[in-house]
Amino acid sequence: MSQQIESDFEQAIARYQNGESPKALIPTFKEICDRASKNSAAWTCLAWLYLLDDRPKSAYKAATKAVKLTPEDPQAQVNLALAMLDCEKSGVRSHIDHAMEVMMASSELREEVQRNIEDGLQRKPDWKSLLRVRRWLFES
Question: Longest Cα pair distance anywhere in the chain, in angstroms?
Answer without folding.
Answer: 42
